[in-house]
Known about the structure:
By secondary structure, this protein is an alpha/beta fold. 29% of the residues lie in helices and 24% in strands.
Amino acid sequence: MEKVKRIWQDCWPSFVPRWFEVDKSLVEYLRDVALRDPDRVALDFYGKEMTYGQLKESIERFARGLVKLGVQKGDRVALMMENCPQFVITYFATLRIGAVVVSVNPMLKHMEIEHELSDSTAGTLICLDFLYAEVDKVRDRSNLKNIILSSLHDYLPERPVLPLPPEAQQGKSRFPGTLDFQEVLEASSKESIPDSFPNGDDLALLQYTGGTMGLPKGAMITHHALAYASVGATYWFNQKAEDVYLGVTPFFHIMGMVQMMCAPLISGGKVVILARFVTEVVLKAITHHRCTGWVGATTMLTAILNQPHVEDHDLSSFRYIASGGSPVTVDMQKKVKELAPHADIADGYGLTESVSHGGAVTPLGRYKPGYIGVPHLNEFKIVDLETESKTLSPNEEGEILIRGPALMKGYWNKPEETKKVLKDGWLYTGDIGTMDEEGYIRYVGRSKELIKCSGYSVFPNELEELIRKHPAVAEVGVIGISDPYRGETPKAFIVLKSDYKGKIKEEEMFEWFKKNISAYKRPRFIEFREDLPKSGAGKILRRILAEEKKDRL
Length: 553
């Protein structure tokens, strides 16, 4: 096996171990915390607390309920929920019996749901009641034998300490041919479950990618890879039992799942669960619960910084704030530091295929502007685009390759697709970047999103970072559109900050481009928008912007 010099380890904080082993499944790590400290609060849902002892008991009971329904080791169990205690319970219960979690984005519509249910051949679905209407449209065309419904209302306190989402304020709904979550829990107290826990090589998770190119593919993630990524995150962020985590990053997405659910729970901390991201509610939660750690999408951080009177909220409890999806600008860094003076700020880069933390992340206390961090769990190298094999020198642009224990096994039932991205143990990410002399990674963009302008290469990510420096810009997405002269030319979709709406004209923006951006990179078209399409994790979806453009044409 090719040996890679781990130059990035010199940048790691002293509290991060240079090597570690994982010999247990995630469920066993959580069980150990519950046995050691059963009365410690694990989850807080709008003021309703659940201890580690209560969480362990609920996981065991629901696991018995799944066995009673005929779910066996290796069977796929789909979870379609916003963040809530039920997601945590059903996730770990599924892993407990050796079944495979299929995490379904609750924002999907019926045709998208049908693809993931059909592709995974899931036989059981656990779903929130207000999401069931879309499932019902495709139920007869699926392999579903069991549909278990729950309500956000099931785990709410009598007097919530934070404003509730609309769905949590309505009564519980029942539908024919479905089972009730609470009834499954209550009826399963005498069922038996296997004494043994899953093996490291067993499949734990089928995590569907965002479908950047074609239909979403199920990344096969083993118990060892999932546990390794989660344990690694606890080391990297120096997580302690005293920490309080802002659990608003979607658990159904690999970033929220690993960073804000799995890692915090196996470290014994408290996860403050919010069903969805509402800026004012998030700020109230941070202040009320004195949150110390958060990993979220950069768009979420942007929304907080742009919230009117954000300085009226106390964010001083944060020990670290990490973001991913798009870079954190220097101006954003400064504002975060003003609001959360004790927080280390970090950027990050991860993929579903690298189980989130198997990407790169900023060492706490060693932020380097313009870089997304350094490798932690996996090895990185940058290779040339032409041969896809020659390792490049520091600061040369090429494709990012990743190898290590925190990687998927491949794509579910897609051997040809797997062969395209996994070669000789390396994951070919399709992302373009550089590595400097210290091992810091700079993300340039997706190779397939490259815009060729008069022979020059323009990466949307780089251009977006430049445009965000304009004081009026809250969010921006850039795509390439056809140009008879240049081949392609960039178009910028811009969301203005509230104070600037209706006050900035296209001509002023173009003038700013002329002064601040090279001629060959400069967008020739602008479209002001109220919002931009985003993934469940808050990442701006350029492919949707491109599809909208095609539809209009």
